[in-house]
Write a structure and sequence with these properties.
By secondary structure, this protein is an all-alpha fold.
Length: 49
């Protein structure tokens, strides 16, 4: 069975050492590039293909 991400004492220790601004930045890190790619408009050549 898979464990939940961050479901370890070591991960909790790492998160406890972050200040709230850094934790917020870390939480968006994997999603920002994905949103940028997913919502990008195609180039005209791709749109007309």
């Amino acid at each position: 069975m898979f464990k939940a991400p961050g479901d370890t004492p070591l991960f909790d220790l790492y998160l406890d050492q972050l200040n709230s601004e850094d934790a917020a930045l870390l939480s968006t890190f994997p999603f920002d590039p994905w949103y940028g790619f997913d919502t990008a408009n195609p180039a005209m050549e791709e749109a007309e293909a």
